[in-house]
User: Fold this.
Amino acid sequence: MPFQTCMNVSEASNFESSLGLYLKPVSRIKINVQLPKLSVPGQSISTWQVMEKLKETIRPDTFLYLKSLKITATVIKFEGELETKSSSERALARLRAVGSLKLNGFSERLQIRAAHATSIGPTRHDWESFFRDAKGVNEMRPGERPDTIHVEELPVCWFTENGKFTNPNEKLLRKAFGTFGKIRRIEIPPKTTPSSSMFGKTSSLHNDLLFEAYIQYEEYVEFVIAMESLRGKKLLYKGPDGKVYSADIKVDFDRTNYLSERCIKQRAVEAKKASLSEDIKVAAKEVEQLEISQKSKVKVLDKNSTTVLETKIYPPPFINQEEAQTEAQLLLKELLHRAEISEQCKEKQLKLPSTNLQSEDKSSKSFSTKDPTTSKMLKENDKQEKSHSLKHIKERHMHLYKDKNKFHRSSDHASSCEERLSPRDKDFQKDRRHKHKNKHEYNQNKDKRKEKKIDKIKDREKQHEIRLKEKKIKERLYHLHEQEKKNKEKLLLEQERILKEKLIRNLKAREEEKLKVREKLRKELAGSKVLKSVLANPNISLPKRSL
Assistant:
């Protein structure tokens, strides 16, 4: 059976109580047993004996299953599952406390290392990295982004109304998985045999007992909630008799874009082709059966009569199936090729924003020379800068002129006073003048430094204003380019839609013609194949036999 009974339900959480479905965490342990060096030739270690020793150390707890994952000359790796997480922690504590095993025929003890196994299922990093690196995928379309869950090995009888192994019910599946959020679409792939590979799926061992399903949610948050709540969990079912059963389900995100519009259309086309081929095979078998029945009737009449009977068999009109299939394939290829081209153009536009900005800078320079509005703006900026620089130069000249006049006046007054003073006073006054000159030069240098700083600040402000104006111009040009791109995309989408409509009309017309041809065939086969025998004409006299 694909599922087993569950004895302990203490850690179970509610999934859909109306259907009797619950979730339980999986508690698994990994054990590494290091092997000693074999000194005696021909000596060996049995894994069964090691497993029995491990089971003895864990008691009174028991494994649900214990299997060997890897066997080498130095290490044996085991994996085991217990009923609950508390029992797994107790088992780990016992194994760590023992630390080693003693086997018969070996002097050395086998060292043990045990730890919790990692939870089964993909994480958020897995699907984000997968869809980031995937090619030919558009995140704006459903089915081509992280929004669908692929659930495998679901028991059929848990999702049927009668509880028997029949086809699973989509309503019950929608009700169960609708607890995580709104579902856009659900699809259960048909059961396939190994010979038929129409949908690219192969049958498992329990094909009649288990099934798989694709569930697509409307929002990304609902998809994340479903994946995180189902990761590392078992599915429990409480039957009407009170017994509880568990099943190990496999949960993964859709890696094949199964519920995207492109794949759904491809499957519909393949299903139509398969139905057409089956209808043609059925018609051919009916024609062969008619021919066989007519030949058998002729043989019976030949035994009873000596005359030769004529049979007219009208062959059916020839339908070239290969040409029709090749035409349909060519039309599908054209559609897919055009869709891929449009998606590639969108990806390039998203991936190269920096190159677009550089090209826009160059275009802005060329555009500014052509556009009258931008040229006027630049001219006005140049005029303002020139006027500001002229004012600054005039102010500087006036300041220097005033300093010179003050210096001349002070020198005239000093010369008149020098004539009256004594030589000692003159020396003292010279020292004082020298100090005064030094102070004056220091003050002048200080003023010059201040002016330089002010000039630098003003230059920076000018540069900042110029940069702001350039940014505004670039933003305007960028918006214009974006509008042009959007218009081009709209035109391409309209052309694609018109082509798709034409192709669909042609396909429908061809299918209608094929149906008309089949109806004619059936009518001809029903009315034209009639035996012309002697018994049908009463006027014709049979030849008398000579005694």
